[in-house]
Design a protein that fits this description.
The protein is α/β, with parallel strands linked by helices. The protein contains 15 helices and 11 strands. A hairpin with a 5-residue loop joins strand 7 and strand 8. Helix 1 packs across helix 7, helix 6 crosses helix 8 and helix 7 packs across helix 8.
């Protein structure tokens, strides 16, 4: 790992599994932090078993664990707990995603650890937070999507639908990651240590603030509209004459004028009272969408895209997920990098941001317990060095007149 990366020199210890905390710590590892991943002996992070699509390795584990070290510890075992405590005494950050009750029972809640390790930034990710009536409720991404109401916004007019990725986990992981960076900065600047306790529910509720405020103050929730938008029109997917779809979004009256003039050859629509303002277009969406669909049905997708580009109207293709790994925006910018693992070399994505001038070596994906001996040896050597340093200091003091 490059020693000049922003997080180089920081030690992060994490009792993690699944998605939320591993997503946060992988980003810290990408930026140079040393991340020691504590796993259950014999089985490890259960995300290791989610699938075997990557040469026998889980695609989820591959995504979330590049550049980490893995040590197996049973924290209920006295000797293993001593190892954990030795790691925490040296760490800058400790994260976990066990339940609040289990954390308190095991002395791993932020309050307990702060008293024992006063310079340690302690953090956790829970389902619903460390207090409140649902604090101890078991939570998974699907359940939080349902509890927050996200699924009521997703899908078509007939059906609720969940988001196809672990969006609650990812939201919580992002807030954990950014909050840890803020807490480290605050500690450096003031010496004060702040715990970082984040929940899936709070994270997703924040992301849902726009429709929540819209509903709370407007009295009516936004409708489920497939690829359309509750408050913008035209917006969404439209069929073209050759059977393909194009996604487009007209955001304001100026764009609507250009769209009418240059894309659908219907300048009379620009000032039609049914479509002459943002709110009017939304109110008359069904008529509007039918008229646009009629015009676009006479053109190929290539023609529509050319006209949209010439008119500076935002558009995109409606791809499938199997189009993403070969997408030219990834391949032409060298976004794929070689990453070593126990199953051989695999390709992973560069992080969205990296300081300019740094290479793309983010370390391997660890096998279960790969660093058991190395970490224990490091702790032992660190202890020996501390004893020798203290001894030298004592000798110096005793020889000083």
């Amino acid at each position: 790992m490059n020693a000049t990366l922003p997080m180089s020199g920081y030690l992060v210890v994490s009792m993690e599994q699944a998605v939320a905390v591993p997503f946060a710590t992988r980003q810290l590892a990408d930026l140079g932090a040393r991340v020691i991943k504590i796993e259950r002996p014999g089985t490890g992070d259960f995300a290791r078993g989610y699938d075997s699509r990557v040469k026998g390795m889980s695609s989820a584990f591959m995504w979330l664990n590049r550049g980490k070290e893995s040590i197996e510890l049973d924290i209920k075992d006295t000797d293993d707990r001593k190892v954990l405590n030795a790691l925490l005494a040296r760490a800058d950050v400790f994260l976990h995603n066990i339940s609040p009750t289990a954390a308190r029972r095991q002395g791993l809640d932020s309050g307990t650890l702060a008293r024992e390790f006063p310079t340690l930034i302690c953090g956790s990710v829970s389902g619903y937070g460390t207090s409140g009536p649902m604090a101890d409720t078991k939570a998974y991404d699907l359940l939080v999507q349902g509890e927050t109401g996200l699924m009521s916004l997703n899908g078509d007019e007939e059906n609720f639908a969940k988001v196809g990725i672990s969006i609650a986990d990812i939201a919580a992981g992002m807030y954990t990651y950014s909050s840890i960076l803020a807490a480290l900065h605050h500690r450096t600047r003031t010496g004060e240590v702040s715990p970082v306790d984040v929940s899936l529910f709070d994270s997703l509720a924040e992301w849902l603030s726009y429709p929540m405020y819209y509903t709370r103050h407007g009295g009516v929730p936004p409708r489920r509209m497939g690829t359309s938008h509750a408050t913008i029109a035209p917006y969404g997917g439209f069929d073209t004459g050759d059977g393909d779809k194009v996604l487009l979004a007209v955001q304001n009256d100026r764009e609507w004028q250009r769209f009418c003039d240059n894309v659908i050859d219907s300048p009379e629509f620009a000032n039609d009272p049914r479509f002459g303002s943002h709110e009017a277009r939304v109110a008359n969406r069904h008529v509007l969408d039918a008229l646009i669909a009629d015009r676009l049905s006479t053109m190929t997708r290539a023609t529509v895209e050319t006209r949209l580009a010439d008119a500076s109207i935002a558009f995109a293709r409606m791809n499938t997920i199997d189009d993403l790994h070969t997408h030219p925006q990834l391949t032409t910018r060298d976004r794929w990098i070689a990453t070593t693992s126990e199953v051989g070399t695999v390709e992973t994505l560069l992080p969205p941001w990296l300081p300019r001038g740094h290479g793309a070596d983010f370390g391997p994906i660890p096998s279960l317990g790969q660093h058991n001996d190395a970490i224990r040896d490091w702790l032992e050597s660190e202890t020996t060095d501390e004893i020798q340093t203290e001894s030298i200091a004592m000798q110096h003091e005793s020889s000083t007149p």
